[in-house]
Design brief:
Elements lengths: L24 H7 L2 H9 L9 H5 L3 H11 L6 H16 L1 H19 L3 H8 L5 H27 L8 H12 L2 H18 L4 E8 L3 E10 L6 E3 L5 H6 L11 H57 L7 E2 L6 E7 L2 H7 L6 E6 L3 E5 L6 H16 L8 E4 L4 E6 L11 H15 L4 E6 L7 H17 L3 E5 L3 H9 L5 E8 L5 E7 L7 H9 L15
Parallel strand pairs: 4-8, 7-11, 7-12, 9-10, 10-11
Antiparallel strand pairs: 1-2, 2-3, 5-6, 5-8, 12-13
Helix pairs in contact: 2-4, 2-12, 2-13, 4-12, 5-12, 6-8, 6-12, 7-8, 8-10, 8-12, 16-17
């Protein structure tokens, strides 16, 4: 017996995501500059011979799909490994993915066409041949595209096992074999004849007790006017299984009424087979379109990064409760894509770390480092590759960002009030299995007040098991934390050479004076400012 046809490309046990995703998607997109990633994934990379129009063309369906699925974490390690394997296979077979995506797009456009759904719904009533025509035609197109997918996958002999593309290949091979295909073609041919007004005849026999019996549908050959009995398999057998019986008066009117009734039942019988199969194919192509869009987005993003000379890798996922993070060669991909160059990267080994504090001179790469960590975490949790030579991290149900914002017209109050409002929204949703990334939070007030707020907030989150990454210029806050540091706390600082030159790399060390004021003075005024310690009196 034929099993259900399914894609299961991105999930080992279902078609589409059931989860809502991260709580604050808009904040993540804004603070981590994820739009750059979405755009890079939705645009093909220029190749020799391609037109500029092709290069600039953005596929909005891919953009929306990448945006949606990147922000829905896969929190089961085995399911995440399954996702990674199919993405790896997609990167090895980019043309296959492009061809599959095109088929998915064709199917999606058919499903979106106005009136198709209405015809299909009306067909469920079995009102007659005219009502099933739309469903029949759509089904024919779906079946044709299913054959295209099957043929494409069968020609790829090097598909690695244990991934979604290989599983789809086996599913179609087992459930869509030659016998099933031949039978399906026969049914569709029968449907085409009767829905398009083919001439037919009904033979009625009369049994014992003057009962109608053995009502059979025949197709008339146009050339000889002879009848051709329907085949035993396919629609013909469905039609012939419908027999009308009952004691009636033998009149011409009765026969015509019985024949008309028989015809209506015949179409309902065909629909009883056709509609479930139509629903199955609709569900299949709904998911197939989304999944192939995600895979093609991954392919195009990888091609974009490779064209710039950027490296990436598939991360290792830590066991639940292991905590901490390790990485080498971690960089901010959005900045690299915009600048079209390899940026400065960072390395860190912080097993068991739940609090990461980054201090140091302004414009030393602190925010960039934090942002690169957040982007890598999101890319890892959706099954993608990450912008690093190596990356190993834990899974978090939610990721929150709280980055300082420039004052603009969208703010209804002062900057500190706006910061506190956004922080309150985080606290309302944060849980033990969350990651919170804070960038220059509470820098809009005095250092004393900001340090008090930051210390209370970070201490409360930390004590409740939340993982935190924080960039700060609040030296009093950072030093107080450092004074009572634990093994699960790591402190980094933006590296500077003896002459003050920034390397844009983070190194492990105690919090130090940022010298931000001196840097700003030297930038605006020029020369060195010499400070003399002393005392003064007066107001």
């Amino acid at each position: 017996m034929r099993g259900k046809i399914h894609s299961y490309l991105l999930y080992p046990d279902r078609e589409l995501a059931r989860e809502a995703g991260y709580e604050q998607k808009d904040e993540l997109i804004k603070d981590l500059n994820l739009k750059i990633i979405f755009q890079a994934a939705s645009r093909p990379v220029f190749k020799a011979g391609a037109s500029l129009k092709t290069v600039e063309k953005e596929d909005f369906y891919i953009y929306d799909t990448i945006k949606r699925l990147m922000l829905i974490p896969v929190l089961d390690r085995e399911a995440l490994r399954y996702r990674q394997e199919v993405v790896k296979t997609a990167l090895k077979h980019p043309e296959l993915v492009r061809n599959l995506y095109e088929i998915g797009q064709k199917a999606g456009k058919l499903l979106e066409q106005g009136g198709i759904r209405g015809k299909e719904q009306r067909a469920r009533t079995g009102a007659g041949s005219g009502e099933v025509l739309g469903t029949y035609e759509l089904l024919c197109k779906f079946v044709g595209m299913l054959k295209e997918i099957k043929n494409l996958l069968e020609t790829e002999e090097e598909l690695s096992k244990e991934n979604g593309l290989y599983n789809l290949k086996i599913c179609l091979r087992e459930n869509y074999d030659g016998d099933f295909e031949a039978g399906l073609d026969g049914i569709l041919a029968d449907m085409e004849f009767f829905t398009r007004g083919g001439k037919s005849s009904f033979l009625v026999g009369v049994g014992a007790g003057m009962k109608f019996d053995r009502i059979a549908l025949h197709k008339i050959r146009s050339a000889s006017s002879q009848t051709e009995k329907r085949e035993e398999e396919g629609a013909g057998s469905i039609l012939r299984r419908i027999l009308k019986s009952g004691t009636v008066a033998i009149t011409e009117e009765t026969v015509l009424r019985e024949v008309k009734q028989f015809e209506a039942e015949a179409f309902r019988a065909v629909l009883s087979w056709m509609i479930p199969f139509f629903d199955e194919l609709s569900e299949f192509f709904d998911a197939f379109r989304v999944h192939t869009a995600f895979l093609l987005g991954c392919v195009q993003l990888s091609e974009r990064m490779e064209s710039i000379g950027l490296s990436f890798s598939f991360p290792a996922v830590r066991q639940k409760g292991e905590g901490g993070v390790r990485f080498m060669g971690l960089y901010e991909p959005g900045m690299a894509i915009l600048m079209r160059m390899c940026p400065v990267s960072n390395a860190l080994s912080a097993d068991g770390c739940r609090l990461l504090v980054i201090t140091g001179a302004n414009q030393g790469g602190k925010s960039t480092c934090l942002r690169s960590l957040g982007i890598a975490q999101i890319m890892m949790q959706c099954g993608m590759f990450v912008p690093a030579a190596q990356f190993e991290g834990s899974l978090y149900r939610n990721i929150f960002t709280h980055f300082t914002r420039r004052e603009d017209q969208s703010m209804n109050s002062g900057r500190l009030d706006e910061e506190l409002r956004r922080m309150d929204a985080i606290v309302r949703h944060v849980t033990k299995d969350s990651l919170v990334l804070l960038n220059e939070s509470f820098a809009t007030t005095t250092e004393k007040e900001g340090s008090v707020i930051a210390l209370e907030l970070v201490s409360a989150l930390y004590e409740n098991g939340v993982s935190i990454g924080m960039v700060t210029h609040l030296l009093a806050f950072a030093r107080e934390l450092y004074a009572k540091r634990e093994d699960s706390m790591v402190f980094l600082s933006a590296q500077r050479k003896e002459d003050g030159t920034r390397t844009y790399r983070m190194v492990e060390q105690a919090p130090e004076n940022t010298s931000f004021g001196l840097d700003l003075y030297e930038e605006l005024i020029g020369g060195k400012l010499h400070l003399t310690c002393g005392s003064s009196t007066g107001m």
